[in-house]
Amino acid sequence: MAKSDVNSWQAVQAEVLRRIHARIWAPGEMIPNEQALAEEFGCARATVNRALQSLSEAGLLERRRKAGTRVALHPVRKATLDIPVLRYEIEGQGAVYGYTAVQIAEHAPPEEVRSAMQAGAGHRFLHVKSVQTADGAPFVFEDRWINLTTVPEAAKTDFEAISANEWLVRHARFTHGQISFAAVNADAEVAAHLALRQGAAIFVISRITWDGGQAITHVQQFFHEGYRMQTEL
Amino acid sequence: MAKSDVNSWQAVQAEVLRRIHARIWAPGEMIPNEQALAEEFGCARATVNRALQSLSEAGLLERRRKAGTRVALHPVRKATLDIPVLRYEIEGQGAVYGYTAVQIAEHAPPEEVRSAMQAGAGHRFLHVKSVQTADGAPFVFEDRWINLTTVPEAAKTDFEAISANEWLVRHARFTHGQISFAAVNADAEVAAHLALRQGAAIFVISRITWDGGQAITHVQQFFHEGYRMQTEL
Q1: Which residues are in the HTH gntR-type domain (chains A, B) (predicted)?
Q2: Residues of B with Cβ-Cβ distance to A183 under 8 angstroms
């Protein structure tokens, strides 16, 4: 390997990966310490640290303070998914994006939604149902609750004109969230909005996003039949 | 912030995130350069670089060589998924793991599978269908093709005794792969193996893994009804 610069941790990572894949360093085996690797590779110890950290985050190494670093016995592969604003996903495919609000109403959510959002008894909610289309065909039906107590500006927003998906990304940056992926049979409402038969298998993304301790929104997105979410390992 | 050490890029990242969320640095706006931030935070420029790199990978910043760093206008949120060996996922839930091979046969795959695996005409394939159970209940039905030309040791392996999922992780480390997630209605075979009604909405993970230019395996995993894959944002 060439002498290191600030970006060469990727080169260290590639060499460590090669040794793991070639089983030069076998599953469960200790690897040399950072200082020894830095000397071998002729780079800064911080560069080795960055590379090992990255491989540890990817589940390929197990690092223990003081005990050193081992090749993982049971590697957990991690996949990274992009969660884009739907308009950019649709337009990125070269399709014409469309948006229609089918219901906008201020009312109380079902208890399971309120509880998942850890919302207080006095909190107000906006319920927005909408359909987003690609070249005129339904792409996703969205059933969303927005906590107006957390995001009061949402009460003054025209969700006939802009999707809550896009508005929230622009106006209510979140600190963290939970996301889950599942399959459901389309019920009558989902089938009607996606223009497909009841019972069709639908890919659903459910998400709650938070601004610190306050939930911003709870959303279920029901994708058109055949939707596939893809990524690299 | 305290004076930096090799691990304090996380502290820099937290402060940059805070400024983005508080809109001190608004979407689309240039942020100060690395040297200026390093001086402000009293840390090494490499530490700032590491923090900005991480936020850029997460889609919150846009970095251009020479042009500098902006807050992303259209942040793409990234979610990281763990893809564990199923046995560890099941046992990790405190359930008893079970495995049954329902078909093990060497024969040619359908053209779409061969083509997706970029396999040569002379390549040999093992077709393994199996069911993995949690506390006796079907958890996943797996339909897998293994390229024996790439992984010849698989021909001598007893897949009645160990799942291909687990054996491959131990014996055929891969360099990269493609993974996708979708929903399908259970056909007669899937319904029978998962002990559910035909037409039930099933979450499917499809995966092809590679060792460099050679495909190792092509697998579809059909999960039990109601399966939910979850992660944090």
Answers
A1: 6-74
A2: 182-184, 201-204, 227
A5 pLDDT exceeds 60? no
Closest CA to A139 of A196, A82, A181, A184: A196
- In chain A, residues with a C-beta closer than 8 Å to the C-beta of B34 are none
Q: Residue A79 and residue B205: Cα distance in Å, rounded?
A: 12
Complex ipTM, two decimals?
0.72
Shortest CA distance to B182 belongs to which of A6, A228, A176, A11?
A228
Instruction: Place B32 in a pLDDT band, splitting at 50, 70 and 90.
Output: very high
B195 Rama sector, left if φ>0, alpha if ψ -120 to 50, beta otherwise: left
Distance CA A11, CA A2 (A): 9
Residue from A17, A86, A173 to probe the interface with B (highest B Cβ count within 10 Å): A173
More confident residue, A101 or A121: A101
Chain A residue with minimal CA distance to B79?
A81
Question: Smallest CA–CA separation between A123 and chain B, in Å?
Answer: 23
CB-nearest partner of A178 from B17, B82, B232: B232
Test A227 with B23 for CB contact under 8 angstroms.
no
The C-alpha atoms of residue A41 and residue B199 are separated, in whole angstroms, by 56
H helix and E strand count, chain B = 7, 10
Chain A contact probe: residue of B173, B176, B210, B225 with most A CBs at under 10 A:
B173
CA distance A117 to chain B (A): 15
Chain A residue with minimal CA distance to B231?
A179
Q: What is the mean pLDDT of residues B60-76?
A: 79
Residue A105 has what DSSP assignment?
E
Closest residue of chain A to B46, computed from CA coordinates: A6
Question: How many Å from the N-terminal Cα to the C-terminal Cα in chain B?
Answer: 25
Cα B162 from Cα A170, distance rounded (Å): 50
Return the SS3 of B15.
helix
* Confidence tier at B4 by pLDDT (50, 70, 90): very low
Instruction: Flag whether residue A65 sits within 8 Å of chain B, measured between CB atoms.
Output: no
What is the maximal distance between C-alpha atoms in chain A? 65
Query: A202 to chain B: nearest residue by CA?
Result: B183
Residue B20 has pLDDT above 90, yes or no: no
Domains and CATH numbers, chain A: 9-71 (1.10.10.10), 86-223 (3.40.1410.10)
Residues B19, B3: Cα–Cα separation, whole Å: 19
Percent of chain A scoring above 90 in pLDDT: 50
Integer CA distances (angstroms), B64 to A147, A204, B29, B33, B68, in order: 37, 35, 13, 12, 5
